[in-house]
Structures are given as structure tokens and as C-alpha cells.
Design brief:
The protein is an alpha+beta fold. Helices cover about 25% and strands about 25% of the residues. It folds into three domains: about 70 residues, Uridine Diphospho-n-acetylenolpyruvylglucosamine Reductase, domain 2, CATH 3.30.43; about 150 residues, Uridine Diphospho-n-acetylenolpyruvylglucosamine Reductase, domain 3; about 120 residues, Uridine Diphospho-n-acetylenolpyruvylglucosamine Reductase, domain 1 (Alpha-Beta Complex), CATH 3.90.78.10. The radius of gyration is 20 Å and the shape is globular. The mean pLDDT is about 95.
């Protein structure tokens, strides 16, 4: 277990933003993770758990307390059953499952971050969510001071949400178990129209696993969503805002506002989101409110490749980023009456 004091946290995040932590511990085993958590809890020290840092916005003042970086390793396949240590690099794990001929998470290729973060956010993209394949989450329960096994049904998964996100100070994820599918080298049925089009297929079709993964990686790269140290469009947290889910009456009011603003023929994106709810596109809202690709003149700007990504152009501060985010939120609210919600977790700051 490595320990540093007054340790920079910016290099541990994909934004490359944020001040130092009073203390930074890097834990390489589950036992070290638990020991560090218990020590912080016993002493009343604030604790910040860091995995891949791809979903964090840390304030410029840093974090007064213990930052715990989970660097555990472990990739275990037993037939179609997969177990990942929380510190495993997610996109590498996806590649290994594809190489093993197993389907279920191939469309989640290229997503930055660690395996332990995936159930917290219920990570999803291109028609797949981890909640569809996770069977159990092994976590340390800070309330009972025990290691617990939480089955899928008790994880309360929903769109970009879970019980872990709802109660962030209770559980520290140690390992995640998945049930994948052996489909003779083929992918899971395609659910996302853009992916199907890029593959020359139809939604519901299966395609060779490697082709599905490579196509998703190309799509993500084109949007600046695959990490590249030389590309400032990837100095981001990916999608900064979640897609709004509106009640039927809210969506009707929103659609009327769209037609009033953009013309009677204008149709906002609409996707079924469960009984009495419709999901619309945050990217569409941002663009139609006037915040187009590359928007901004300062060191924090909207990506030149995707309107949902706010980026650090190299010398931004967290306050620069937040100022841009607040401008976008205010502009979308004024234009369409919808308040966007940030997807990344904020530490020491609020939007």
C-alpha cells in the first residue's frame, strides 16, 4: 500500500483537473482497500474513493482528507461467468471478453474508468448497460463493517443510477460478477440504431463480436470519447449531462416549447423510458440552445467532436469548467424549460 501526502489528484482524473489531497493511498488488494476505509472511518477522516477518475470533477482546492485509489487487479473467467476486481481497467476487460468469444459487454468498449465504477453509474452505451449482465457486486459495507455480496435485484439499477450512487458513503465496490453469453463468436443482439447502421445490420441482428467492438471504438473515437493524451477533446468525463427523462405532461410542454422556438414542424428526440415517461437527448438540447461543437473561447470548451462533452483544452481550472457547465445549463433551461443534470460526481464543488 503506497501513501503520499499533499498529493496531486488532477493526474488521476480524465479531466486533469483538481487540487491535491491531504493524503493519497493506493491500495493493490481488497484487504488494503478495506483497511484504508476502516482507518478513515475510525478516525472520522473524510474519504474519497478513486478508480479510473473518468467520472470525477474535483475542486481546485482539492480534497481535505484521505483519497483512496483502488488499484486492485483480477480477471477471472469460469465458462461464461466473469469476475473483475474493482481496479481492473474496464476497456481492457471488455477486450479480453471479446477475445474469449463472450457477448454482453462488447458495445461498452472504449469507456474509460475502472470495473468497480461500472455498477455505481450503471454504465451504458450503444444499447448495452452493465445492469443487464451483472449478477452480483461484492462490496465493503461501511455501515455494518462487513464485506457483502449484493445480487443484481438489490442493486436498484436504473438509467445511470444504482443504490451505490444513491448512497455513496455506504459501499466501496471490491469486485463485480457478470454472466456473459457464448453466442458462437457473435455479439448480443444489436439494440442501438447507430451501431447497426455502421455495421450494415439491423437492430436485433447479431454480428461478429470483434466487429461490434471495433465499430463501437470507431464511433466513440469520432466523438472524442476514447482517451488520447494528445487530443484535448478527450480531456473530459465523456458525457457531462444525462439525457433528461420527462413525465408525459412534461414532455408535451417541452414539445410545445420546441415548436414555438424552432417551428411547428420541429420534433425533439423522443425515446420510450417506461410507463408515462419519455427520454430526450441532452446533446440535442445543448446544440439547439446554441452551444455547438467547439463552443467557448476560454480554456474549458465544448468538445469539437461532441456537444455532450465539456473539455479541458490544457490549462483550464475546475472553476473554468464549472462556469461553462453553468452557462450551458442556464441556456438550455431558458430555451426549453429543462434543467440538465451533471453525470460526473463533483467533489468540493457544486454545479
Amino acid at each position: 500500500m503506497q501513501e503520499l501526502h499533499d498529493a496531486p489528484l488532477a493526474p488521476l482524473t480524465t479531466f486533469r483537473l483538481g487540487g491535491p489531497a491531504t493524503r493519497l493511498i493506493t491500495a493493490g488488494t481488497d484487504a488494503e482497500v478495506i483497511a484504508a476505509v476502516r482507518e478513515a472511518d475510525d478516525s472520522g477522516t473524510p474519504l474519497l474513493v478513486i478508480g479510473g477518475g473518468s467520472n470525477l470533477v474535483i475542486g481546485d482546492e482539492g480534497f481535505e482528507g484521505t483519497a483512496l485509489r483502488i488499484a486492485t487487479e483480477g480477471f477471472s473467467l469460469d465458462g461464461t461467468r466473469l469476475e473483475l476486481a474493482a481496479g481492473e481497467v474496464w476497456t481492457d476487460a471488455v477486450a479480453r471478453t471479446v477475445e474469449a468469444g463472450l457477448a454482453g459487454i462488447e458495445c461498452l468498449a472504449g469507456i474509460p474508468g475502472s470495473a468497480g465504477a461500472t455498477p455505481i453509474q450503471n454504465v451504458g452505451a450503444y444499447g448495452q448497460e452493465v445492469s443487464s449482465t451483472i449478477t452480483e457486486v461484492i462490496a465493503y459495507d461501511r455501515r455494518t463493517r462487513e464485506t457483502v455480496v449484493i445480487p443484481n435485484a438489490e442493486c436498484a439499477f436504473s438509467y445511470r443510477h444504482s443504490r451505490f450512487k444513491a448512497d455513496p458513503d455506504r459501499f466501496v465496490v471490491l469486485r463485480v460478477r457478470f454472466a456473459l453469453e457464448d453466442a458462437a463468436g457473435l455479439s448480443a443482439p444489436l439494440k442501438y440504431a447507430e451501431t447497426a447502421r455502421a455495421l450494415g445490420a439491423e437492430p436485433g441482428d447479431r454480428v461478429p463480436l470483434a466487429e461490434a467492438r471495433e465499430t463501437v471504438l470507431k464511433l466513440r473515437t469520432g466523438k472524442g470519447m476514447v482517451l488520447d493524451p494528445e487530443d484535448h477533446d478527450t480531456w473530459s468525463a465523456g458525457s457531462f449531462f444525462t439525457n433528461p427523462i420527462l413525465r408525459d405532461e412534461e414532455f408535451a410542454a417541452f414539445r410545445a416549447r420546441v415548436r414555438e422556438r424552432l417551428g411547428q414542424e420541429a420534433q425533439p428526440p423522443a425515446y420510450p423510458a417506461g410507463d408515462g415517461h419519455t427520454k430526450t437527448s441532452a446533446a440535442w438540447l445543448i446544440d439547439r440552445a446554441g452551444f455547438t461543437k467547439g463552443y467557448g473561447t476560454g480554456p474549458a470548451r465544448i468538445s469539437t467532436k461532441h456537444t455532450l462533452a465539456l473539455t479541458n483544452r490544457g490549462d483550464a481550472t475546475t472553476e473554468d469548467l464549472l462556469a461553462l457547465a453553468r452557462e450551458v445549463v442556464a441556456g438550455v433551461r431558458e430555451a426549453f424549460g429543462i434543467t440538465l443534470v451533471n453525470e460526473p460526481v463533483t467533489v468540493g464543488v457544486t454545479l
